[in-house]
């Protein structure tokens, strides 16, 4: 995985060594208003990050890619994530600590990741699934040029009741 630069931000390939600082970032309860929960311990997160360093799904069919988002002052703000299939379809996700919301940081980080997905991983179609009440996530996707997925895509991508799916083409920077 490459280190990416995003208009002042640095996206570092996630490694086991990031667990301690990310445990603090991911302990922010605001992140989990709509889904998921914080990591239970640093050790748990370290193990998870170690496993994810394979950069592959267990069946080997997808690249599982995670980048830590680092600010110019060297603080870690969150992460961006993609699962890239060999057929060019790619699911993305993104999480920042709430102290870093409202500054356009997620947009910059996700845009940089999208460029990398297109140029290095052959992605041509991006997908994002989110809880329908998660307006911040929807606004981010709107700003990035995503559009609601067609009804058929909901079943194809396992979208559950109360979730939305949005899509756009991946383009090289
Ligand atoms: C989803 C999430 C990453 C969005 O973060 P965000 O900071 O709102 O997103 P952006 O980086 O696009 O920032 C946009 C905001 O910054 C503001 N902004 C300030 N300067 C800006 C700039 N130069 N460029 C763009 N936006 C800017 C925008 O006006 C916007 O503010 P608004 O939300 O009040 O309209 C964040 O809410 C999050 O981590 N949530 C918890 C995890 C989560 O739900 N993840 C999604 C699961 S699918």
Question: How does this model look, in words?
Answer:
It is a single chain. With 173 residues, the chain is an alpha+beta fold. The protein has one domain: Gcn5-related N-acetyltransferase (GNAT) (Aminopeptidase). The chain is 29% helix and 29% strand. Helix 1 (19-25) packs across helix 2 (42-52). It is globular and about 40 Å long. 27% of the residues are buried. The mean pLDDT is 96. Bound molecules: coenzyme A.
Kindly summarize this structure in a few lines.
The protein is α+β, with helices and mostly antiparallel strands. The protein contains 5 helices and 8 strands.
List keywords for this structure.
alpha+beta; binds coenzyme A; 8 strands; Aminopeptidase; 5 helices; 8-stranded mixed sheet; 173 residues
Q: Count of DSSP E strands?
A: 8
Low-pLDDT residue spans: none
Average pLDDT for all residues? 96
So, CATH architecture? 3-Layer(aba) Sandwich
Give me the strand/helix succession: EEHHEEEHEHEHE
Spatial arrangement of strands, main beta sheet: 1-2-3-4-5-6-8-7
Helix content: 25-40%
CATH class group:
Alpha Beta
Radius of gyration: 15 Å
DSSP helix count?
5
Structural class, from secondary structure content?
A: alpha+beta
Q: What is the count of structural domains? A: 1
Question: Gap between N and C termini, in Å?
Answer: 17 Å
Topology at a glance:
Layout (H helix, E strand, L loop, with lengths): L3 E3 L2 E5 L5 H7 L16 H11 L9 E9 L5 E10 L3 E8 L8 H17 L3 E7 L3 H9 L3 E2 L2 H6 L6 E7 L4
Parallel strand pairs: 5-6
Antiparallel strand pairs: 1-2, 2-3, 3-4, 4-5, 6-8, 7-8
Bound molecules: coenzyme A.
